[in-house]
Amino acid sequence: MHQLAVILVACAGIGYCAAAVQRWRLIGRSGEIAQSRLPALWLGFAAHTAGLVIAFCIRPLDRDLLYAILGVWAGVASLLFATRYIAGPSRGLLALPVGCMALLVAMTSQAGGEQLHAEGGGAIGIVHGGFMAAYLAAVLVAGATAGLYVIAARQLRSASVRALKLPELPTLERLTERSLIVATALLMGGVATGGAAMEHAHGFSLAHPTTLIALVSLGIMVLVLAVHAAQRLSRRGFAIATIGCMALGASSLLSLLVTAHG
User: Fold this and answer.
1) Residues near 69 by beta carbon (within 8 Å), at least 6 away in sequence
2) Mean pLDDT, to the nearest integer, of 204-233?
């Protein structure tokens, strides 16, 4: 099974490279980039996911192999979600955050009873921390831009002189949407790697406030993006919802300061 996992990850790498070559060729052509589905990319991601599942099932568990595959998988999943959703919202892409939640639960249940209580957490802990730090930065940008949108819209309605000195509403809306998409993708990576990083933490579990806030935040962000893509949410409502996502991100940061995080 160990060799099979390695072979699948190698196939995934070949698929990613093939997709990159295909994309490079499409750049030189006109009118074909938007229509391209890049099947090699999705086949590579499917092989990568299969390799991750097999690495997770290996007994005794090869943690080095599992963490290496998991770290790269989280990065690829985050990039796929962000770039594809920005290119064109798709309901199918919303399955990726759900998959990350399931992965967190699976990793946590596997780690239960085998706490290493090690300091730090190794490379996977660094990857997890990087994802979460970048997520907090992105969600703060999204919330700040959304807040500016609400202020600018109010100034326009009141015909204030300040309205002429604020950024245009379409620009603010676009920045808010893209920042929230990037924040969601980064939180996906953080959640996906969280179960593995949790194994090295002291007394850390799914019931920990930080974990619960992260799961709730991811669920709400996915819901907001889905409703927004379906055009069931007004522009002002989307901005206010994004501000709420920022508040959840801030509460996650606060929980790190108040409670132990391993």
Assistant:
1) 5, 9, 48, 51, 52, 55
2) 86
SS3 readout for 174-222: HHHHHHHHHHHHHHHHHHHHHHHHHCCCCCCCCCCHHHHHHHHHHHHHH
Assess contact for 85 and 93: CB atoms under 8 A: yes
The full DSSP string for 131-175 is: HHHHHHHHHHHHHHHHHHHHHHHHHHHTT-GGGGGSPPHHHHHHH
Q: For the chain, how big is the Rg over CA atoms in Å?
A: 20
Q: Is the pLDDT of residue 100 over 70?
A: yes
- pLDDT at site 98: 78
CA pair distance 253, 133, nearest whole angstrom: 9
How far is Cα 201 from Cα 134, in angstroms, rounded to an integer?
21
Q: What pTM did the predictor assign?
A: 0.79
pLDDT tens digit string along 134-168? 999 999 999 999 999 999 888 888 877 776 777 88
